[in-house]
Amino acid sequence: MTTQIAALDIEKVRSDFPILQRQVNGKPLVYLDSAATAQKPAVVIDAIADYYRRINANVHRGVHRLSQDATEAFEGARGKIRKFLNARSDKEIIFTGGTTDGINLVSQSYARSVLTADDEVLITHLEHHSNIVPWQIVCEQTGATLKVIPIDDKGQLEMSALDELLTPQTRIVALNHISNALGTINPVKEITARAREVDAVVVIDGAQAAPHMAIDVQDIDCDFYAISAHKMYGPTGIGALYGKEALLKNMPPYRGGGDMILMVSFDKTIYNDLPYKFEAGTPNIAGAVGMGAAVDYLTDLGLDAVAAYEHELLAYGTKALSELPGLRMIGTADNKAGVLGFVLDYAHPHDVGTILDQMGIAVRTGHHCAQPVMDRYDVAATIRASLGVYNTREDIDVLVAGISKVHEVFG
Known about the structure:
By secondary structure, this protein is of the alpha/beta class. It has 2 domains: 2-31 and 302-410, Aspartate Aminotransferase, domain 1 (Alpha-Beta Complex), CATH 3.90.1150.10; 45-300, Aspartate Aminotransferase, domain 2. 41% of the residues lie in helices and 17% in strands. The protein has helices spanning 2-7, 10-15, 42-55, 65-85, 99-114, 133-142, 162-165, 188-196, 217-220, 245-250, 285-301, 303-322, 349-358, 371-376, 393-410; strands at residues 23-24, 27-28, 30-31, 93-96, 120-124, 145-149, 170-176, 201-205, 224-228, 239-243, 261-264, 269-271, 327-329, 339-344, 361-362, 364-366, 382-386. Strand 5 (120-124), helix 6 and strand 6 (145-149) form a beta-alpha-beta unit. Helix 5 (99-114) runs parallel beside helix 6 (133-142). The protein starts with a helix and ends with a helix.
């Protein structure tokens, strides 16, 4: 473990991110909002710019050189994502607008076509709204029942509740790999195995896991796994959905248009093969290229080294914050990723965020699109400092100093 941490040259990593040279309100930027969106290394920015400078053309449709180059870059990115997730085939990787788009694809293409009024969908109390609302919608459309796995005071799933909640009527289990609000790492492999006992399909929101840990969809044995590029140091507006080929083959298209067809007449349309059946219209080609570059960047760093370094940083931050007077940590799971959520008993989170911003510190305040989590802890909002691979102990020290300043103002 020590060797892995030593192998991660943090000063070199920080130099890869141009925005970290910026000052905010006359102070060096301390960016602690990576769970909302991660910053981009120069190699990702350059890859996107290079695509527009040298290649820019539509994919799959042209015989000219630029179109062939664009197709090669686009499909090359798909291959990188397949390897990153350890999917069996490029056919199992669908480009989407992000995790939210991927979950909606599954809910409206797969779930809507199989659910009945006798069926149940099981989610968890830890979910982001994007893994709640699509299931509420499809349950309203089909008459299926939505059930929720509760969490304990630490923010961990109450696994004993699975025995009661998983029934022969459970058709879909949908959960996040890592909670965006609390950082809880869920036992997705164990839950998938339990879901198999009732023949339920498992859908995983992997948005927060992709930048922080190695992912192996074959080892997890999940049926669907959705990720977003912008969480993993890539561009916004692009993501990918992994789906088992056998399921994807039988699912109806989610959108209609160009590139998802083989033949169209006014009498009948024959849909394209996987993965293109789900990729209507001109795709976000530059975004895919940028996502591929982000995958290369994380792969070169080494996900095990990233996880080890961030684990040490999380422990340091947890100890430092816990020692501050009037501060209560929200989310203290035994197995966590780099999220430090807390409230102060003397100041509203939005006031805290405003004062920290004056010191150049970027944190997220609010319900983090996870209002049921906030309700569980009886708070309207939390202050969330979320870690990325470019953060340091010094960043944590600046945050602690910032909270001390807040205490001077309000305490």
